[in-house]
Amino acid sequence: MKLSATRLSRTLSHRLGFRRDWYLVVLSVIIGLLMALVATAFIAPLRWADELGEKMAGSSLFWLMLLLVPAIGGLLVGMVRLLINAPAIGPGITTVIYSVRRKRGWLPLKVGVQQWINSSLTILTGGSAGAEGPIATIGGAIGSTSSRILHGNSQATTTLLGCGAAAGISAVFNAPIAGIFFVMEILLRDFSLRTFTPIVISSVVAAAATQGILHDQAIFDIGLSFAKNEGQFHISLLPLYLLLGILCGIASIGFIRGLELSTRFFDRLNAPAVLKPAIGGLLLGGLGLSWMLLTGIDAIPDFYGNGYPIITDMLQPERYANLETGQLLDGTGWLAVFLLGTFGLKLVGTCLTLGSGGAGGMFAPSLLMGASVGGAVGIGIDAMGWLPNGTPAQFALVGMAAVVAATTHAPLTAILIVYELTRSYEVIMPLMFAAVVSTLISRWLCRDSIYSAKLRAIGLHTGSMGDLTILRKLTVSDLTIKEAMSVPTNDSAASMLRLSELHGVSDFAVTDDEGHYAGLVTSEDLKAALVYREAIPLLQVNELQRSNLPTLTPDEPLDLVLEKFSRCDSDALVVLDIDDHRKIMGLVTRSQLMRRYQSALDRDE
User: Fold this and answer.
1) Is the pLDDT of residue 462 over 70?
2) pLDDT digits (tens, 9 = 90+) for 215-233
3) CA-to-CA separations, 199 to 5, 190, 356, in angstroms, rounded
4) pLDDT at res. 605
5) What is the spatial distance between Cα 558 and Cα 580, in angstroms, rounded to a whole number?
6) Are strands 517-521 and 508-511 parallel, antiparallel or unpaired?
7) Residue spans of alpha helices (H) in 493-576
8) Which superfamily does 224-462 belong to?
9) What mean pLDDT comes out for the span 589-595?
10) How far apart are CA 17 and CA 602, in angstroms?
11) 426: burial class by Cβ within 10 Å (0-12, 13-18, 19+)?
């Protein structure tokens, strides 16, 4: 009976695609529970800071706090980054994507520790950033470290990294579905069952455990009045949401380009790296102080922190119109101006915070900017009488998804995260429509998302094909490296031709006088020489060799190998030793790469 149960378990595991990796399911549960505790510890001080900020508003030295606290937070961030020297490519999510694409899922735990401390310092001191990037990075580092401790392969490491990231998003936002698709659509781009199953389990466990600890529901409470004012979506509203999608797509370009410019400015700034976040914080503080002096509002500016309170306010229909009569309130025109101002200030504040080196996520700023644009557009449409049964709050909600989709180029994630944050199913169709439109506009005007711009700058192209994830998980060492036939660079071409005829070899690695790699004679070079066979006795190997061909190392991912093959007309490339880049290990051919790729596809690796 015991043997039968074991056989059944193995058969089921094999059918699901796990084979020997069944332990991933168990680990996904553990990671989900652990991330619920981590997320609770991460959220608690942020909530405490919001309450403290409300209490201190209006005090005699409040203006000084607005100016200096973000700068102090930036200085602390710079010092922590100096003390915890963790490798980072850019903001948290960008670093996670890089680890998946180029490091086979290896994300050091100290990256997560640094991100935890610095993002908390940034947001606690008013920095304009969100919590989703840091918690995904923390979770990814925990998942990656778990795999390395258990000596997991690259597939397991990447999957567990995804489990941790999904669990973190799920726990912080109480959005398990969005957490899953955030990882699958943005980080891994791998929807195979073998990867999908553990990530689903981890995300659901994290959300359930966090709800049990904090007893939270949706982050943004839209209230009963939203549902009462919800008009039935019909085709006549499509042009309105088309307009909203276009405007949100354009707005997202402003955010992406603004962050690029800000990052470039601070990179070129002639100041110590440790002080740059403080300079960004001081500029943000100056912006906050100017806002207080101009408006006379003695409170934390809406563009400080994650902006959740103002988003919740924008989603209340009574903020815009009389619920009894449906008429817009007096002064709503100024409210539209205020919302557009909030959009601009949030954009500038986020660019100053993150461009200078502050830590934090970009989802929360995108949500606030989307709600601002959507609310302003909704007011304009309602004022023209084109929204008889609806409310501008609907457009604020849809705008949230549209801007997130356009900035990340991930419409599915944006749709699901906004739906789960508000739990309003009635607007799911306009959410989907506007998010897709804004994504198309954004991709048309800007090829990079807010995450991929930095990666492209360092030569990593994320691509859009899901099958590329297979090549990213495999390296040159997963191929059969052929023994290279070597010839000295000063040898005769006739001698090389005799070796070719004797051993049936057409690609030769060329070595210098010390036996180190000097170049490659390809089959095409050899064929070209044979056209003028009578000249072969007069030629030497160094007259046929090519020294400008790219070389490989055993740890290079196969998507990079494919890119190198595409840049040259050679059917083989030389593999050099990792430690000694002059020592020849062998050859890899284009056909080997394609066969390994097809084999991986067949086995769904």
Assistant:
1) no
2) 655 566 565 556 555 556 6
3) 26, 11, 33
4) 43
5) 21
6) antiparallel
7) 493-503, 523-531, 558-566
8) Clc chloride channel (1.10.3080.10)
9) 83
10) 12
11) middle
H or E segment to which residue 74 belongs: helix 62-83
Q: For 517-567, how does the pLDDT look when each residue is reduced to its tens digit (9 = 90+)?
A: 888 888 887 777 777 666 777 778 788 888 888 888 888 888 888 888 888
| β-sheet bridge partners, residue 573 | 588
Chain centroid, CA 535 distance in Å: 57
- Mention the CATH class of domain 474-603: alpha beta
User: Cα 420–370–436 angle (5° rounding)?
Assistant: 70
Q: How is residue 376 written in tokens?
A: 């302003």
Task: State residue 228's pLDDT score.
Answer: 55
Beta partners for 485? 508
Residue spans per domain, the chain? 2-214, 224-462, 474-603
CA nearest 368: which of 413, 415, 309, 422?
Answer: 309
pLDDT of residue 253 exceeding 90, the answer is yes
487: helix, strand or coil: strand
Angle at which helix 363-383 crosses helix 238-268, to 10 degrees, equals: 140
In the block, residue with structure tokens 């915070």: 353
Name which of 262-266, 384-388, 392-396 the model is least confident about.
Answer: 384-388
Other CB atoms within a 10 A radius of the CB of residue 198 amount to: 27
At 2, the pLDDT band (50, 70, 90 cuts) reads very low
CA–CA separation, 285 vs 291, rounded Å? 10
Enter the tokens of residue 20. Answer: 């020997």
How do residues 263-282 score in pLDDT, each as one tens digit?
Answer: 889 988 888 888 999 999 99
The yes-or-no answer to whether 2-214 and 224-462 have a common fold is yes
Among 395, 310, 391, residue whose Cα is nearest residue 345: 310
CA distance 308 to 84: 30
Residue corresponding to tokens 């069952």: 193
DSSP 57: T
**pLDDT one-digit tens code per residue, 296-308:** 777 788 888 888 8
- Tell me which residue of 522, 370, 521, 488 sits closest to 434, measured CA to CA: 370
What is residue 3's predicted lDDT score, i.e. its pLDDT?
Answer: 47
Q: Token pair of 574, please?
A: 């030389």
The answer to whether 371 touches 150, Cβ cutoff 8 Å, is no
| pLDDT computed for residue 197 by the predictor | 85
Q: Which pLDDT belongs to residue 11? A: 55
In the CATH scheme, what architecture does the domain 2-214 have? Answer: Orthogonal Bundle (1.10)
Chain length of the chain: 605
Identify the bridge partners of residue 546 per DSSP, sorted by sequence position. Answer: 520
Token pair for residue 235?
A: 């085709």
